[in-house]
Design a protein that fits this description.
The chain is α/β, with parallel strands linked by helices. It contains 13 helices and 15 strands. It folds into two domains: 233 residues, Amidase signature (AS) enzymes (Alpha-Beta Complex); 196 residues, Amidase signature (AS) enzymes. α10 packs across α11.
């Protein structure tokens, strides 16, 4: 079953502008979002934890107020990923045994969004422990892709992307360590941004098993993992990035046609399915015809196979918090410091590359939206050009930006045919660390060339 592609609904800035002009009240905006959720979510199941009553109460109070200059999202309804703490709401990361954890306060990011005038109407679905390219668990059930109910919306921010793609809300915030913002954006045909590591605080995004301990206070962000926005246009994506940023970001005045761009479409050990390769090649050709200078190879690219090996090892250690791996081996402090050294060296190599190139283009994942599985993707395989390929190899395209702490914006570039279904396809635009707004702006220009 295919759902309508409801991406023509107003975005966050458009909704906020209508409220400022008096064409729409905050409670009307929230009510419209709730009606839309009630209409579509029985089939899509994007929303895990609704907060409709408090949202309407907040919206009605805002009806009597005027938006402040520092409230660009005044009255705009939105959702956040289930794993972010929202005061008074459950956060269990998909575990039945952890449903007793009720967040005592808002996460730092949610505080910022509310201060900007956003109204959080609920939290969206995730896989258990945020570790899959699907979004299903025994507490909240399975989220389906708004474009095709037989397919995954991605993960771990799959509920986030499905809510935005279906038009339930104009924007969202998810997290990403293994493509968890970029892959759902790619699978669902929307915009997503992996921020530079360290740009946006993840305080209040803690595993509930730890957070419910008496006196627990998270003092730092986890290695590799970031918080990043999802939206239906570039302008909303940039605003959400700026609102979440812990410090101001600069924008360059350099035009994209003056930039030098490198495309990476091959990765050792991680083949790309034709359903992704064909729309990617078509997009690159159209961008070149539009005046963008794109090169296809460079000796400056780091050793990608080594990067992938180091990335997987570092991510597994970080997510397991040093617990023994399935083979029984435990990481020691010396192993972790070796990983930090490898990451620093890799980040330096990428910084050297970005002295020559302004942006790097690459697929966000080697496949389009996958069919639903009854087990986590990474315990199975991906069907790539008719062959079964270990799913972990697909993480290479996420690790391309994750391991060196780089920003990467995903924009929709078209559609491909994967295992008998026509599905959305995206492309990621990477840049130097802290060039988040430049990546989004470059992606916006590319979208204009591709779809204008």
């Amino acid at each position: 079953m295919a759902y309508p592609q409801l991406t023509d609904k107003p975005g966050a800035l458009e909704t906020a502008a209508a409220i400022r002009r008096g064409e729409l009240s905050p409670h009307e905006a929230v009510d419209a979002a709730i009606v839309r959720i009630e209409h579509f979510d029985a089939q899509i199941n994007a929303l895990a934890v609704p907060d409709f009553d408090r949202a309407m109460e907040t919206a009605r109070a805002m009806d009597k107020q005027k938006p402040g200059e520092d409230q660009p999202l005044f009255g705009v309804p939105m959702t956040v990923k289930e794993s972010f703490d929202v005061e008074g709401l459950q956060s269990c990361w998909g575990h039945n045994r952890l449903t007793d954890y009720i967040a005592p306060r808002d996460s730092e990011l949610v505080k910022r969004l509310k201060a900007a005038g956003a109204i959080v109407i609920g939290k969206t679905n995730v896989p258990i422990d945020l570790t899959d390219w699907q979004s299903f668990n025994p507490v909240y059930g399975r989220t389906t892709n708004p474009h095709n109910a037989d397919r995954s919306p991605g993960g771990s921010s799959g509920g986030s992307a499905a809510a935005v793609a279906s038009g339930m809300v104009p924007c969202e915030y998810g997290t990403d360590i293994g493509g968890s913002v970029r892959v759902p954006a790619h699978f669902c045909g929307i915009w997503g941004h992996k921020t530079s590591w360290g740009l946006i605080s993840k305080r209040g995004h803690d595993h509930p098993q730890m957070a419910r301990r008496k006196g627990f206070v998270a003092a730092h962000d986890g290695a590799l993992s970031i918080a990043g926005p999802l939206a239906r246009n570039a302008a909303d994506l940039a605003l959400l990035t700026e609102l979440g940023a812990s410090f101001p970001l600069r924008r360059r005045a350099k035009r994209l046609r003056e930039c030098r761009v490198l495309a990476i479409t091959e990765f050792p050990g991680s083949p790309v399915d034709a359903s992704v390769a064909e729309p990617t090649e078509s997009a690159l050709e159209r961008l070149q015809r539009g005046g963008i200078r794109i090169e296809r190879a460079s000796e400056l690219v780091p050793d990608l196979q080594r990067q992938q090996n180091d990335y997987l090892r570092m991510m597994n250690i970080a997510m397991a918090r040093g617990a023994p791996s399935p083979d029984g081996k435990r990481a020691y402090a010396s192993d972790w410091f070796d990983m930090l050294d490898a990451q620093a060296a890799n980040e330096y190599q990428w910084s050297q590359l970005f002295e020559t190139y302004d942006f790097v283009l690459a697929p966000p994942a080697p496949v389009l939206a996958i069919p639903h599985l009854e087990e986590p993707v990474f315990r199975s395989s991906l069907k790539i050009n008719g062959q079964d390929v270990p799913a972990a190899s697909g993480l290479a395209w996420a690790g391309l930006a994750t391991f060196p702490n780089l920003p990467a914006t995903v924009l929709p570039i078209g559609h491909g045919n994967y295992e008998g279904a026509k599905l959305p396809c995206g492309m990621q635009v990477m840049g130097p660390r802290w060039s988040d707004l430049d990546c989004i702006a470059a992606a916006e220009t590319m979208a204009t060339i591709l779809h204008g």
